[in-house]
Amino acid sequence: MAKVVRKASAPAKAAPTPAPRKKPSAASPVELDKLIHERVRLAIVSALAGAEALSFNELKSQLSITDGNLSVHARKLEEAGLVACEKTFVERVPHTAYRLTPAGRKALDAYLGHMEALIRRVRER
Fold first, then answer.
1. Who's near 72: CB < 8 A, 6+ residues apart?
2. Phi, psi values for residue 106, rounded to 5°
3. Which residues lie closer than 8 Å to 105 by C-beta, 6 or more apart?
4. How many CA atoms lie within 13 A of 97 on its CB side?
5. What kind and span of H or E run contains 16?
6. Phi and psi dihedrals of 16, rounded to 5?
7. What is the CATH class of 34-124?
């Protein structure tokens, strides 16, 4: 009789530590925060800024984007530490919820401040 050998599964990996983000220069109008400035990511952080948390389906519906598009952009924001993702089960159904982190709120505030300064500068001319 053949002996069955089972491989032990690899231990779960810890969540990656967000990479330090380079701050945009306030002196240069072209140095916008490229992570947030992208249209879908700006929409995600803006939607989350107005809510305590939103589910994957709520975000997808509000932004009128595909599952894949939301997943890719949300993961990029999550890896940067701007958005937190919580995956749970509700009555055996997977549920993914996103919320803006304190770092995400700070980054959005800085981005909006930069945009406001650009608008003032243009209107002064």
1. none
2. -65, -45
3. 49
4. 12
5. none
6. -65, 145
7. mainly alpha
The CA distances from residue 18 to 3, 77, 112, in Å, are 44, 10, 22
Strand arrangement, sheet containing 83-90:
54-55, 93-100, 83-90
Q: Write a three-state SS string for 85-117.
A: EEEEEECCEEEEEEEECHHHHHHHHHHHHHHHH
115 vs 32: CA distance, rounded Å: 8
List per-residue pLDDT tens for the chain, 125 residues long: 444 344 444 444 455 555 555 554 444 556 788 899 999 999 999 999 999 999 999 999 999 999 999 999 999 999 999 999 999 998 999 999 999 999 999 999 999 999 999 999 889 88
Compute the residue count for the chain. Answer: 125
pTM score, two decimals? 0.75
Contacts of 111 (CB under 8 A, 6+ apart): 32, 33, 36, 37, 42
